[in-house]
Amino acid sequence: MAKIRTLFKDISPNEAGFTLVHEHLYSHPPLWKISGDPDLLLDDVEKNAQELKLFHKAGGKTIVDATTIDYGRSAKALIEIANKVPEVNIISVTGFNLGSYYEPWVYEYSLDDIVELLKRDITVGMEGTNARSGLLKIGTSYNYIMKVEEKTLRAAAKVHVELGTPIVSHTTLGTMAHEQIELLLDEGVDLGKVAFYHMDHNLDFWYQKKILEKGAYIVYDCTGKIKYGPEEWRINMLKRLIKAGFLEQLMIAGDTARRSYYKSYGGGPGLDYIPTKYINRLREEGFTQEMIDIIFIENTKRFLSW
Ligand SMILES: [Zn+2]
User: What is the pTM of this model?
Assistant: First the structure.
């Protein structure tokens, strides 16, 4: 029986409901040390739980915390948030984001060491806790793949082949998706269980169609981030992809990785932006309720189950 693995228990796919597949509920990233930008520190458990409650009030049921090991994931903090907001299903990832964030041990670990680590997160628990990951994450740099990124990608692919756990991918600014696909196929990965994040950074119809034709999902996760372009650009490309027959491979999220995106820290648009304002906009733009349900309920549960 297919399941979706949340922090503390496996749920039936039909229990997932309205789902966002790329958010951040807690992170303490090394990038903060480099940039000194406190906006990247999403580390106030109380405020993060408050924000998650807003998501739930807006109709949200399930959420992916896409914070990787190298981006300052904390199983302990996620457990605290989950205990404060038990009405929302939280799915945590295991895996890595970018080679430039990795600590030295990731370079030193063999491929097999990484495989063992990822498997332990999924089957036993993360960071010595009993909270488990339900999703693998890979990631590559802007327009190139570091050797060490290829190592962690191949490790995630091997774990996917063994356990069936789905894979999400960080594509920096929507690049290197096709090169990642080549490596994943080389490892025998089922592309129907892979979703490419950040594809709305690269609103290129040809590029996206080629990914979708191979059976993978794409995720638009700059929703609400007008600094990367108006919603109109994303919505127009979504319409074009739907017209081309790819509705069942599209997912939408907000990638809320900064304090300033959270209402609870005094910012916006907030974790409730997509289930409220953005969905109303989609309706006004001609998306039917059926299409919205396919994107946020049907596609997400099909992708997340294994
Ligand atoms: Zn993210």
Answer: 0.97
